[in-house]
Specification:
Length: about 550
């Protein structure tokens, strides 16, 4: 475990603030968790800490207070940001329509030595890494430490658009170590400086903070294709969010809609319009910063995107630091992708339509065991739960992702196969059965059971599977429905109010179907856990 050391030069920042504000900050006695100080004209000054916000004075901020701060710092650039020589602090201005400063956000800049040890193996692997997270969660701090570590053994150049990585002034802050720093005159020119760094200075690593424009995404791809390692940050929450961002989706390969032939769509069991990954991803690894000491790591971005567009999201690797500073790594279980053709190539999708991905994916990523150690984790394959009753189904003209979704909702052991020789049964639509398609004729010759559906919907699939597995699919009576509805509504409200997840009591398959439906209506994610008769529904917050 690396000993963490924090350098923040806080006294230098406090030295340019009004004395009353400084006194209140010191009285709060929580400088280690101080994020920024906000001074807005005509409002009370505030200090923002990691988990709270504190009013520093009952006296409103005056024009004299604003001028006092501005006089003690450097000039503001075109992005309305200013810094302090040889520090990492950042002061951002809010201006009125006449260009006068009416608000200041004074961000505390910290060099946290040792913060990157949770990712050091990936940083030193030579693979390009993208750090994804919301503002203020620590992306730049991790990026600065990564630059220092890489600068010890590789030719590392920082493209420092707002001087947040290397600090204000011509001499970089000691926190970046041996890494060289290229400043950017204006944020709109960041992409040009990125290319210039590669062409002029022979780097092995390029470090970039806040890729946010299409030109910067294109420059990043160009750099990666030249064999230079990239370490960068971007605003966002998850890989799914990034894929739906038209400006930045290219960083992870992007997606495009492809129209299949009738025969190919029937062979895949998908709609004619599916999604595919457009290109190899610019970044090999994507890190979702969930909390300051908790990360979700997609170690293979290409595979993660391919799985996502097929409708089978892969669980990321979870890394976190406990209260004692020890680092823990929870690797996801093997997740075979049902229905995947090994010869189809890395960019083939397997059942996702052109609808938004939130509507197409069957499950939420499972929660880490720390939340509920006693709960059964979701299995990648139903054969793990009831191997003796596993049913291998060949869907013909039926959407594979919908079939798997129906099977998971019912809690029945189904495996989707691609070859008739591997199947225990064939599932098809009435249209294809009446047309006497060749595959159906061959199934009859093999004496395979053939189940015929009226339509390619989840409800029809659930009804068919309930009949196949002889589940109790009788309608729930009114009294039971009222009880179930009240329990589920209470759980949904609890999740909407902030709980990460809520488990409902064990219930029958028919009741669970209703619980899943209520969760979907509330735009939440649900999944069934456990074994019969104790199988239950867990409702997640996205």
């Amino acid at each position: 475990m690396t000993q963490r050391r924090i350098t923040d030069d806080l006294d230098l920042l406090l030295g340019v603030l009004p004395p009353a504000v400084v006194e209140a900050v010191r009285a709060a006695d929580d400088s280690d968790n101080l994020i920024e100080i906000v001074l807005d004209l005509g409002r009370l000054p505030k200090a923002r800490f990691v988990n709270r916000e504190v009013v520093l004075s009952q006296t409103e901020v005056t024009r004299a207070d604003i001028d006092y701060v501005v006089s003690g710092i450097g000039d503001f650039d075109t992005d309305n940001r200013a810094g302090m020589e040889r520090t990492l602090h950042r002061i951002s201005a809010i201006r009125n329509r006449r260009g006068h400063i009416v608000g200041l956000t004074c961000r505390v800049g910290r060099a946290v030595y040792g913060t990157i040890d949770i990712l050091q193996d990936l940083i030193e692997s030579g693979r390009s890494i993208l750090l994804l997270g919301k503002p203020g969660i620590g992306k730049t701090t991790m990026l600065r430490e990564a630059a220092r570590i890489l600068g010890e053994s590789k030719r590392t150049i920082i493209v420092d658009t707002s001087n947040e990585i290397g600090g204000d002034g011509d001499v970089p802050h000691p926190a970046v170590g041996n890494a060289r720093r290229m400043q950017v005159a204006t944020p709109s020119l960041q992409h040009e400086v990125m290319i210039e760094a590669v062409e002029n200075h022979n780097p092995e690593v390029i470090v970039i903070d806040e890729i946010g424009r299409e030109l910067e995404a294109e420059a990043a791809r160009t750099i990666a294709e030249r064999g230079v390692q990239l370490v960068a940050t971007a605003h966002g929450r998850t890989l799914e969010n990034l894929l739906l961002n038209p400006t930045l989706s290219d960083l992870v390969g992007g997606i495009e809609s492809v129209t299949l032939s009738d025969e190919e769509a029937r062979r895949r069991g998908t709609q004619k319009t599916v999604l595919e990954r457009r290109a190899p991803p610019t970044f090999d690894v994507l890190v979702e910063i969930q909390e300051r000491d908790r990360l979700a790591v997609h170690v293979d971005v290409a595979a993660a995107v391919d799985a996502l567009v097929r409708g089978y999201p892969m669980q990321p690797e979870i890394r976190y630091r406990d209260a004692d500073g020890q680092i823990h790594i929870e690797k996801p279980p093997p997740q075979p992708m049902p229905g995947r053709n090994a010869n189809a190539g890395a960019r083939r999708s397997e059942g996702m339509s052109s609808m938004p991905m939130q509507r197409s994916r069957p499950t939420q990523r499972s929660e880490p065991p720390a939340f509920d150690p006693a709960a059964d984790e979701p299995k990648a394959d139903f054969a793990e739960q009831t191997p003796a009753k596993l049913l291998r189904i060949l869907p013909y003209g039926v959407a594979r992702n919908r079939l798997l979704q129906a099977a998971k909702h019912l809690g029945v052991p189904v495996m989707v196969v691609r070859e008739l020789a591997e199947a225990d049964a064939l599932l098809t639509l009435r249209t294809y059965y009446r047309a006497r398609e060749q595959t159906i004729v061959e199934a009859e010759e093999r004496s395979l059971p053939i189940y015929v559906l009226r339509s390619n919907t989840v409800s029809q699939l659930e009804q068919s599977l309930a009949e196949i597995f002889d589940l109790n699919s009788q309608p729930v009576d009114q009294l039971e429905w009222e009880i179930v509805s009240a329990q589920t509504a209470s759980a949904i409200q609890a999740v909407l109010n902030g709980l990460r997840w809520v488990d409902l009591p064990p219930a029958s398959a028919a009741v669970r179907r209703m619980q899943h439906e209520l969760a979907r209506q509330a735009q939440l994610t649900s999944h069934s856990y456990g074994k019969e008769p104790n199988r239950r529904v867990r409702i997640f917050r996205e």
